Amino acid sequence: MKIxxxxxxxxxxxxxDENVARARNLMLRHKIGRLVIVENNKPIGMVTxxxxxxxxxxxxxxxxxxxxxxxxxxxxxxxxxxxxxxxxTPRQLAELMTENNIGGLPVVNNKxxxxxxxxxxxxxxxxxxxxxxxxVKDLQIDPALTVHxxxxxxxxxxxxxxxxxxxxIVLEDNDMPVGIITNSNLxxxxxxxxxxxxxxxxxxxxxxxxxxxxxxNRYISEVPLVAEDIMSxxxxxxxxDDLATYAAGLMIKKRINGLSVLxxxxxxxxxxxxxxxxxLTM
Length: 282
Prior knowledge:
Residues 7-62, 77-134 form the CBS domain. The protein is an alpha/beta fold.
């Protein structure tokens, strides 16, 4: 099987001078995680959900204060573009993704024209259709980064960056998983406000004159958003003894890149990257 047999087409593209708001909206509308940046009909870069969150979070204050419809894609895109030819194999694609820590490559012809895009989703779909007896427990599963449902967005961003992770399982007080937070959640909520701060929510509160008194003094307080405000829920789980191909198929069906793995409690997170690394061993 060749890349031309598993790649996705057509490809959604933007120019480097279009704004981040348009790029984000395209990703949301078409449920995709990356866009190819094209200039003069040639691919010059890539922008992903992760790029938008990371670059704006690290941007200098004057950029943080600008609305996202004022920030050009050029500011957040990745310029070192790696491409692949349509006659390459899925294993070669997996090698390029693993070696360069990327989740997708434009597929180009001999004229350097973009004819498709090959992503981790294409490799996961390819893997899900293989005839294998491999179990989830046979894969290299990532340890689970966990946060509490009341942790703030700023705390979550810090934990993700400190642990070089792109997702976290949200736990209830009893340590049971209730949701998951990914770059997708952060991309559509973490955008800075005009002062460069993180978004907040309003809470209406009341006070009583005395313990038995009538409620009064109603007021609104602004507090930071927390994990339960932005997490994806309910969380989707697989078990240690499930078939690996079943787990891959579930990822494709639900369009999620992280499954909580349960055994005796939360054992870890099975991601598309784990499946790509498995393809390299086959």
